[in-house]
Amino acid sequence: MNSITNLSAQQLRNAAALKEKIQALEKELNQLLGSPAAKVAATTAPKKKFTMSAAARAKISAAAKARWAKVKGDKPAAPAPKAKRRKMSAAARAKISAAAKARWARVKAAQK
User: Which helix (H) or strand (E) holds 7?
Assistant: First the structure.
């Protein structure tokens, strides 16, 4: 068989025309026989993007946490009780307020 570099321009054009005819005939044959290659090319449509709802993610997360707790032998953690807020006495509030006012007075005096 001749190397492609040894062919003339006319021979290259004939080879390209024959190749196109062969491809057209193969395509026609595939359409007649219903080959899987033709069906695959026709059915490749872009897939839709799947989005999961927040509720579904929460369910999956809870199930995964429960599975890991079972594996580790942990019991489900109960929510920690809220700490009671301490009340500051009126005298303590007055003392803090006086100290803050004195600090601000010193800062303003230093700026003058």
Answer: none
